[in-house]
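FAQ: What does the model actually see?

It sees only this:
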Amino acid sequence: MIGRVVLVVVAALAGTAWVWSGGSPTRARPHDVVAAGAVAPRPRPVLTLQVPQVGPPLPASARHGLVERLQQYPDVSLATPLQRAAARRLLERLRARASGWADEAAADAAGFDVQRPKRLRGETRVMWFHSENRAWHNDEHYLDPARPDTLIYADLPHRPLIVVGVMISMPRGLRGPTPGGPITRWHSHIVCVQGSLRGLAPKSDGSCPAGQRRVQGSEMMHVWFTHDLRSAFAIHAPGPELCSSHLLPASVCGNARAFHVM
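And it is asked to produce this:
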């Protein structure tokens, strides 16, 4: 999708998305994408950029779709043994790679933007901070575990950032590869775009500002560093599994209100 995303706030069980940028919570910016690495160097069909309708939920076998239509968790049973192995391999390689950027200084040195967005006064809940490496957004390495374009950190007040996952992005108009079959799903958002510029979320009534058009934005995949494939490839932050995997502090996991609704 199109708009530089620095922060996504998510509920433990998923919901309605807010994305904040530059400390302004009043204008939502879907986390747009612009390329990230290759697992299989084969041609990918181009998405039709048309006026999208949300529509009903997609079947569990769907590998691409609007975020509102995809199920939060993939149905791992629909994948073949080879697809499950490929998804597990992708998860472990991304986890190992991102562990080197658990420290903010190391991530900053590698080119990731680790400047945290400002919080609203009195806001103490966990936020999901998307830390971009802009140099890796247009490098034509699609789904390359060595070059994830965005780190996802759990951001809690007065605590160091905790790396809990990554986001992989595709250029606008290209479908992402799915080596894990229905496990490795790509979601997208409805956005308003003008030319080749990154887009913004539509206005509250669903319309776009004058001179912009409403399209299905770029595809992205979240990969969370939990201990099972189902939650690792959830669309939104899988709060319960991040807790059971001991990635979040007990003070968060024991308080449902510590999670911000997405």
